[in-house]
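Long-time lurker, first post. I've been practising inverse folding by hand and with some scripts of my own, and I keep getting stuck on stretches where the structure tokens seem ambiguous. Below is the full token string for one chain I'm working on. Before anyone asks, I'm not after the true native sequence, just a reasonable design that respects the backbone. If someone could post their per-position residues I'd love to compare against what I wrote down in my notebook.
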């Protein structure tokens, strides 16, 4: 029977984990402190240890190092409700097998234990990276405690020590360059150059020369040879932002760099060796670009070795207080803190942020200027950015629905109502009327657009427009 040790001072979590693993026929021991867990580990060898980060007395990351001294091959799964990038990196560097952010599903914990035990049976120990030095990771550079950001921290920590290509995706303003910089800062290349390249800002006719360099006389104006950006980043990391804007002819040469680690300058015939890691980012849908022939499929697969997706701010609204505190510390004048009242914080969490974290930062700076030292109020903030296009409309719709629900659930003393039906009664007639208006009242075509049966559309018309004299029978 596999053996599990759970080190967590939160009794409900320890109890739930214990019960789940006992149902799976594991032998389970529990400790409420790191010291007790270490003492048990000296008496008995466990297959897997679940280790909380915040514990009374010795903290979990210190205990991780001690556990590895006692049993180097033990699989440790770090769990925390207060993780950040620094925590994730230290856990991986300390030899943790996995990293789970609370709250997590018990199925995740069981799956992690099974994978750890399988690896142990196969005589494979968890990957362990020895840190060269105590690096200042600046954990506040990427802010977030939401589950989606915990996953981002974990993925950065796992991929940073490798040489794998990383493709960062996400909407504009989500912080893709911050992730690229964090990946470089936590890699063995940290002392070498990190070179960000914004593809869209390069002259389309000179992208190839900018990336790969050129020889003297390669084209009009090339009075002397020049090393390209990939050559300048030799030994380090190049960050290719707005990847989708790379012209097709240049894509083939970039693939050669990735496959052979060599570049051929424009106008030159001889290749030059480079040792460069490529981290790229895009807010565009590259799979669509591949399908449309605008992006090489082989280059896409080569760059997409390890994807990291950054969530939009609307999917991590619980991080807004942390982000606001972080930015307002920067905007403070003469060590004077900027006050953000609770009602203003509620306002920030409910309004749309199509520009994501970047828009939030700019709005907070705007408000700080307007407030002139007084507490920030909703009227100090600029109007929400109007985004033209389907994506912006979807964001606005989601935000309005969220605000509508929060308004109706604010008073917990009121008996729960049929919110779902209320929403349908509000939205259905608006959809129905606008579709009919756009289609000149053609009910048959409207039913097709709505994806509903004609009989359903007739019932909706009778429900919301009882005076319309809508016939009961089938249309002809």
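-- Answer (accepted) --
I ran through it position by position. Result:
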């Amino acid at each position: 029977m596999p053996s599990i040790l759970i080190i967590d001072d939160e009794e409900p979590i320890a109890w739930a984990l214990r019960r789940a693993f006992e149902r799976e026929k594991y032998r389970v021991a529990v400790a409420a402190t790191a010291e007790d867990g270490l003492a048990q580990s000296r008496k008995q060898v466990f297959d897997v240890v679940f280790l909380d980060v915040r514990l009374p007395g010795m903290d979990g990351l210190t205990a991780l190092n001690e556990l590895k001294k006692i049993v180097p091959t033990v699989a440790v799964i770090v769990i925390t409700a207060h993780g950040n990038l620094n925590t994730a990196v230290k856990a991986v560097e300390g030899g943790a097998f996995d990293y789970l952010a609370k709250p997590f599903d018990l199925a995740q914990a069981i799956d992690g234990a099974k994978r750890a035990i399988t690896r142990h049976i196969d005589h494979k120990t968890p990957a362990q990276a020895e840190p060269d030095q105590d690096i200042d990771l600046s954990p506040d550079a990427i802010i977030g405690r939401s589950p989606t950001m915990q996953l981002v921290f974990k993925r950065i920590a796992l991929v940073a020590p490798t040489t794998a290509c990383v493709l960062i995706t996400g909407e504009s303003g989500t912080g893709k360059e911050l992730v690229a910089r964090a990946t470089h800062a936590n890699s063995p290349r940290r002392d070498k150059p990190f070179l960000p390249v914004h593809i869209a800002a390069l002259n389309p006719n000179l992208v190839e020369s900018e990336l790969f360099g050129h020889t003297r006389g390669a084209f009009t104006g090339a009075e002397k040879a020049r090393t390209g950006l990939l050559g300048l980043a030799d030994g380090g990391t190049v960050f290719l932002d707005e990847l989708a804007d790379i012209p097709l002819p240049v894509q083939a040469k970039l693939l050669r760099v990735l496959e052979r680690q060599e570049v051929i300058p424009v106008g030159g015939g001889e290749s030059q060796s480079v040792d460069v890691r490529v981290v790229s980012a895009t807010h565009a849908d590259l799979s669509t670009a591949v399908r449309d022939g605008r992006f090489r499929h082989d280059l896409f697969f080569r760059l997409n070795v390890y994807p990291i997706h950054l969530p939009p701010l609307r999917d991590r609204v619980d991080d807004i207080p942390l982000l606001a505190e972080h930015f307002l510390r920067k905007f403070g004048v003469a060590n004077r803190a900027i006050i953000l009242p609770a009602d203003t914080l509620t306002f920030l969490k409910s309004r749309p942020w199509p520009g994501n974290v970047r828009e939030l930062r700019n709005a907070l700076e705007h408000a700080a200027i307007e407030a002139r030292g007084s507490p920030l109020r909703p009227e100090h903030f600029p109007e929400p950015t109007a985004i033209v296009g389907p994506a912006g409309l979807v964001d606005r719709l989601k935000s309005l629905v969220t605000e509508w629900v929060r308004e109706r659930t604010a008073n917990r003393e009121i008996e729960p109502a049929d919110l779902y039906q209320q929403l349908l009664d509000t939205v259905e007639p608006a959809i129905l009327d606008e579709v009919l208006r756009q289609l000149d009242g053609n009910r048959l075509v409207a039913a097709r657009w709505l994806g509903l049966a004609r009989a359903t559309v007739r019932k909706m018309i009778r429900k919301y427009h009882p005076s319309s004299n809508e016939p009961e029978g089938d249309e002809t």
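A couple of notes from the structure itself: DSSP finds 19 helices and 14 strands in the chain. Residues 419-438 form the longest helix (20 residues). Happy to go over any region you disagree with.
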